[in-house]
Amino acid sequence: MDYRHATGPCYARYLAQSLHRGEKYVLQIDAHIRFRMNWDSFLIRQLNKTKHPEKSVLTAYPPGYDSTEIRATILVPSKFGNDGMLRQKGRLLRSDYKHDKENDNIPCLLNAGGFNFSHSSILETCPYEKHHHLFFGEEISMAVRLYTHGIDLYAPPKTVCYHKWERNPLRVREDVDGLKAKQRKDSLNAVRMQLQGLGCGLGTVRSVKQFSEKLGVDFDKQVLYQGCANVGLSDDAFVSQTATSLLSNTTKEEDRGASNADMNTVFKLVGEYMKGV
Fold first, then answer.
1. Count of C-beta atoms within a 10 Å radius of residue 268
2. The whole model's pTM is what?
3. How crowded is residue 54: how many other Cβ atoms within 10 Å of its Cβ?
4. pLDDT digits over 195-248, tens only?
5. What is the pLDDT of residues 76-96, one digit of tens each?
6. 123-129 contacts at long range (C-beta below 8 A, 24 or more positions apart)
7. Three-state SS letters, the chain
8. pLDDT digits 0-9 by tens, 100-130
9. How confident is the model at residue 175 (pLDDT cuts 50, 70, 90)?
């Protein structure tokens, strides 16, 4: 489609899911991903270790593209942004950490839009909502929907892929008559409704209240309760905080590291190039 008709990752993922033709498994990833050998057989084996493979999702934030890290990462609450949406990050687990002998996947509550693997029946139970015109809010919306539909999320016990988190800063932004801003505002309000248990797309197996209590987060007051970053695990399950800082989702708008000076330099160089200098 014409880039001006793009409305964010939710609609894009909805379109991708519409291409399903009866395959047994579904892998959802962002662009710029490299995989370890035999990732597919590993994920299938890990999914089948769960209590209900057809109602389970394997998901995590991958380490950086050039990393050689193979230890597991698990998604944890990080902070609330200015838009009121919960941010999340990946914490690195110790290599000798074992949650369960039979099912060594690590239970989690948060979902990574850029890497998840599941049985394709989940596409019918909890498909992507095409009307969301947002970036922040995508993952927490899907997480609460999966939870209320009775679908369990797990972090695989080992890293299987790596993502190039840095992105080109020269992104085109067009908003004719403020339409996209209005659509984004409406989408954020829709996600806020979901997090209050009032929105569409939620299941009836488990409640939003159970989700927030188990996660250790108050979405109404935008409060993270003490210990929520451990997601029910002990302190010694994790590698030190400093080692996990690189696993935050730094592609998000407000967390990009380029300064204004850096950006001005980039635009100046591109401008000179376009003029033939």
1. 10
2. 0.83
3. 14
4. 999 988 999 999 999 999 999 999 999 999 999 999 999 999 999 754 444 454
5. 999 999 989 999 999 999 988
6. 123/17, 123/20, 123/26, 125/55, 125/149, 125/151, 125/203, 126/151, 126/201, 126/203, 127/14, 127/17, 128/10, 128/13, 128/14, 128/17, 129/10, 129/14, 129/200, 129/201
7. CCHHHCCCHHHHHHHHHCCCCCCCEEEEECCCEEECCCHHHHHHHHHCCCCCHHHEEEECCCCECCCCCCECEEEEEEEECCCCCEEEEEEEECCCCCCCCCCCCEEECCCCCCEEEEECCHHHHCCCCCCCCCCCCHHHHHHHHHHHCCCEEEECCECCEEECCCCCCCCCCCCHHHHHHHHHHHHHHHHHHHHCCCCCCCCCCCCHHHHHHHHCEECCCCEECCCHHHCCCCHHHECCHHHHHHHECCCCHHHCCCCHHHHHHHHHHHHHHHCCC
8. 778 999 999 999 999 999 999 999 999 988 7
9. low
- Residue whose token pair is 């539909």: 149
Measured on CA atoms in the order 105, 107, 113, 117, is the torsion positive or negative?
positive
How high is the mean pLDDT of the chain? Answer: 85
> Could you tell me how many residues make up the chain?
277
* CATH hierarchy code of domain 3-274: 3.90.550
Nearest CA-CA partner of 136 in 203, 82, 92 = 82
The token duo for 125 is 């139970």
